[in-house]
Amino acid sequence: MSTVKLLTDREADAIPAVKAVFDDIRATRKSEFINNFWRGLANDPALLKRTWEGLKAVMTVEGALDPLVREMVYIAVSTANGCSYCVHSHTAAARARGMTEAQHAELLAVIGLAGQTNHLVTAMQIPVDPEFDVSAN
Amino acid sequence: MSTVKLLTDREADAIPAVKAVFDDIRATRKSEFINNFWRGLANDPALLKRTWEGLKAVMTVEGALDPLVREMVYIAVSTANGCSYCVHSHTAAARARGMTEAQHAELLAVIGLAGQTNHLVTAMQIPVDPEFDVSAN
Amino acid sequence: MSTVKLLTDREADAIPAVKAVFDDIRATRKSEFINNFWRGLANDPALLKRTWEGLKAVMTVEGALDPLVREMVYIAVSTANGCSYCVHSHTAAARARGMTEAQHAELLAVIGLAGQTNHLVTAMQIPVDPEFDVSAN
Amino acid sequence: MSTVKLLTDREADAIPAVKAVFDDIRATRKSEFINNFWRGLANDPALLKRTWEGLKAVMTVEGALDPLVREMVYIAVSTANGCSYCVHSHTAAARARGMTEAQHAELLAVIGLAGQTNHLVTAMQIPVDPEFDVSAN
Amino acid sequence: MSTVKLLTDREADAIPAVKAVFDDIRATRKSEFINNFWRGLANDPALLKRTWEGLKAVMTVEGALDPLVREMVYIAVSTANGCSYCVHSHTAAARARGMTEAQHAELLAVIGLAGQTNHLVTAMQIPVDPEFDVSAN
Amino acid sequence: MSTVKLLTDREADAIPAVKAVFDDIRATRKSEFINNFWRGLANDPALLKRTWEGLKAVMTVEGALDPLVREMVYIAVSTANGCSYCVHSHTAAARARGMTEAQHAELLAVIGLAGQTNHLVTAMQIPVDPEFDVSAN
């Protein structure tokens, strides 16, 4: 149950601006599978296009971070934001990029620890140490 | 301005259970610097000890994830939780572990993108695709 | 599956303080439908009454903001808080107040953008520009 | 104190890709003022450009929602996400677009109410009423 | 630096609806001190009145929970929401109601633990055990 | 549907380090029931052990706070973090420790009120009153 319609392939194919994005998703990912997120965004072809192009630029190109690391960071943010769908989709993506069980377990441990110390810091309202100031560099 | 006292070195040294943890932090990190987080936790030596041992086990030992990756995951969680102190301290820690400007920039881009798509997914209440089900594996 | 009982009409009618609120909800909304939120709150008639009166004062009276705008702001907060039920109920309410597909699509775009820049700002710990200070006005 | 350098005008002007965006911000906003957010993003010209273009497309073009409404939605998301800088900058932007004190007061009331009912709903784990299902439409 | 004006006593006294609430806050709390939260809300006398009456009903009357317990719950919510002001004000209120250092330390430990397990649960997307279903009772 | 496997009793018994923790959970709680959270953590015996020992130290020992109060604080944090599973499991735990309907209703009222004032404070960006400074004590 979503707050927007999820476009079927037939509905998506009928809107050229949507079809173009779906085709690019399939070509970039080398897979026929289009997940529900894009089917929801397809109600607004301009938002769909901007969002896909942003994601493509950040997640799929060569860069300074390993693509698997980017997926793990994505899981971390999605967890802290409580986005169930996002945790599922990016855990699947991380597995597809080779995340091992041991790496997943460590990722969970870091996420849990950060959750704990974030709460402790906020409850104590700890002031930032001047040593952390990057502008001093 | 914090909600607890931040123990000075003199005060910490006067409590053997606190001194033992501070000594271990210094030895593990090969640095004399004890940041404010530990000085706040030192009001409860048992909580200080448990928290430090948890962090030491997760962040400093050899493992399946590069220590720098763990710090970047920590930054990601801390950002989504809005913990200012934690963002500062773990960005400093990531830099100390060799994070380059290019890596930091990519990390920011992934965090921003995840923030965006997390919100879009939640606003649309997208149902999880069955293809993401790990139990089907 | 909820953590409290959801009162049926029969159970609600048996408690005068609950019946009075349910009657007022029906009269104010010109509809027989009482959604589950109120059925859960009905376990505590005083909390039910206070919450309904607060909502009635803020959401249903004439004011400086269009009622549809108020519902869109409600969706925005509910999304950022990850409240699935609230996103559903206020999207339905916004549609009932005339929200078009184009307005919904723009709302989603703004919510997504805010999610993104909120995360970027927090990760960079950007200091507030003095130009934003209202007290200077 | 930020985790990235905030580029001065002189530093920004020395990087053509940054200068181009800053020029466009100034032209679009008809103001010389470049706030700190963009000065932080300028460390990564590609992220700066993508973020500005996304914001420009969502916040400044003609659309189905009044520009002031979009700013109020932005304030709502930023509040729920606890982004202090964003609350300041978008409250200033809303005022610049004509938000009255009465409108601001109502916005605050809706945000506060949503915060309250979001928490009540989550604590009671209220199930979504089938009446809210858009797919039934 | 706030996004609204903080009314001084002189300004508050000039608005009868505000003065009435400030008088009641002082009488209820048996203290001349009016903290900034109320001075900000005073820009909207109706919101000020509703908020104060809600808080008075929940926090100051005799009830099933000890007033100190209510303050500790308030700190817990405020911490998870990242509300710095609220953490400060309710920690001060809890101390005024007799919270000992030992109680505060335990509160911090519970808040930190909950932060940790909340994140672990969300990252693992643990399904709710049927044994937790209250409606089965 | 979880992102990790939930270990059955048979699978748990086959891993001595997991069996030892499950045995301790059962002995400590005087119940055969092992809820799904621990079955998910069991994929990483070290994380399982650390998490259980942390929880046992904080939630089950004699201390300055009543065990029921600790469970109510846990519910408060879990609600603000939007952790559905955690709200369910700790509400069940609080009931098992004797939480009455009247106490639960008051807990809900405090959580809702805190959600409201947290949002109001953040939207107004209220500065901390110097009177709240503990270091002045």
Question: Characteristics of this structure?
Answer:
homohexamer; 137 residues; mainly alpha; AhpD-like; 2 domains; 66% helix; 0% strand
Number of strands of chain A: 0
Helix/strand structural class of chain A: mainly alpha
Q: Please, what is the average pLDDT of chain A?
A: 96
| DSSP strand content of chain A | under 5%
What name is given to the CATH topology of the largest domain in chain A?
Answer: AhpD-like
Uncertain segments of chain A are none
CATH first level of the largest domain in chain A: which class? Mainly Alpha
Q: Of all protein chain pairs, which has the greatest interface, and how many residues does each chain bring to it? A: A-B, 69 and 68 residues
Q: Radius of gyration of chain A over alpha carbons?
A: 19 Å
Shape of chain A: elongated
- Cα distance spanning the termini of chain A: 51 Å
For this entry, what is the oligomeric state of its chains? homohexamer
> Largest beta sheet of chain A, briefly?
none
Order of helices and strands of chain A: HHHHHHH
CATH architecture of the largest domain in chain A: Up-down Bundle
In short:
Six copies of one chain form a homohexamer. Chain A has helices spanning 9-13, 16-29, 36-41, 45-59, 67-80, 84-96, 101-124.
Polypeptide structure, described:
6 copies of one chain form a homohexamer. Chain A has 137 residues and is mainly alpha-helical. The first copy, chain A, is 66% helix and 0% strand. The first copy, chain A, folds into 2 domains: 1-61, AhpD-like, CATH 1.20.1290; 64-127, AhpD-like (Up-down Bundle). Chain A has helices at 9-13, 16-29, 36-41, 45-59, 67-80, 84-96, 101-124. Chains A and B meet through helix 3, helix 4, helix 5, helix 6 and helix 7 of A and helix 3, helix 4, helix 5, helix 6 and helix 7 of B.
